[in-house]
């Protein structure tokens, strides 16, 4: 019985000593320094410069300057509220581009005599010219003429066609 206790003691001591044994050190990886590799000097991709040419806003069909007609009520030469943004947009453009000039063409519908329509067309063109001058456009950049009923936008008779023809057109020169 005493041998069994001694053997048990020896095994327990050996197990205890084995558990207390420090772990074997793990070899750290060696760091190898490499010289940096040079980047390729040419880009294999097909890269082209982007064209950034400025586009004249007059040539933009969806821009605010695409609308160049100011409409009037029957027998009137007062710029309506719906025409004021057109005048403002073109005035701003002309103020920023002092070298540009415009011709304002006054038009009427076909009702009334020729002399009356010529006079009314002139008054409409002058109304637009004065509205643009009040917004700073130089007089030397504008000219107002009357076309009377000679250049209709819409043909036929009836309020829809007449309304289209009661206008002043802004034509850039």
From TrEMBL:
The encoding gene: pal
Membrane topology classification: Lipid-anchor
One Gene Ontology term, aspect cellular component: cell outer membrane
Protein name: Peptidoglycan-associated lipoprotein
Residue ranges annotated for the OmpA-like domain, each copy included: 59-173
Keywords assigned: Cell cycle, Cell division, Cell outer membrane, Lipoprotein, Membrane, Palmitate, Signal
Organism: Massilia litorea
Biased composition (Basic and acidic residues): 164-173
Endpoints of the signal sequence: 1-27
Chief location category: membrane
Subcellular location: Cell outer membrane
Matching Pfam families: OmpA (PF00691)
Entry function: Part of the Tol-Pal system, which plays a role in outer membrane invagination during cell division and is important for maintaining outer membrane integrity.
Subunit structure: The Tol-Pal system is composed of five core proteins: the inner membrane proteins TolA, TolQ and TolR, the periplasmic protein TolB and the outer membrane protein Pal. They form a network linking the inner and outer membranes and the peptidoglycan layer.
Similarity comment text for this entry: Belongs to the Pal lipoprotein family.
């Amino acid at each position: 019985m005493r041998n069994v206790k001694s053997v048990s003691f020896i095994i327990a001591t050996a197990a205890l000593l084995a558990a207390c044994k420090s772990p074997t050190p793990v070899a750290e990886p060696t760091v190898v320094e490499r010289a940096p590799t040079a980047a390729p000097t040419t880009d294999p991709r097909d890269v082209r410069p982007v064209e950034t040419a400025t586009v004249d806003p007059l040539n933009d069909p969806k821009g605010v300057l695409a609308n160049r007609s100011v409409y009037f009520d029957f027998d009137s030469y007062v710029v309506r509220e719906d025409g004021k943004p057109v005048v403002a947009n073109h005035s701003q453009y002309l103020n920023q581009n002092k070298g540009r000039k415009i011709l304002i063409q006054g038009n009427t519908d076909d009702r009334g005599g020729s002399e009356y329509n010529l006079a009314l067309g002139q008054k409409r063109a002058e109304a637009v010219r004065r509205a643009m001058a009040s917004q700073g456009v130089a007089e030397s950049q504008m000219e107002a003429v009357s076309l009377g009923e000679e250049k209709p936008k819409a043909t036929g008779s009836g309020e829809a066609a007449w309304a289209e023809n009661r206008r002043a057109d802004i034509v850039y020169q």
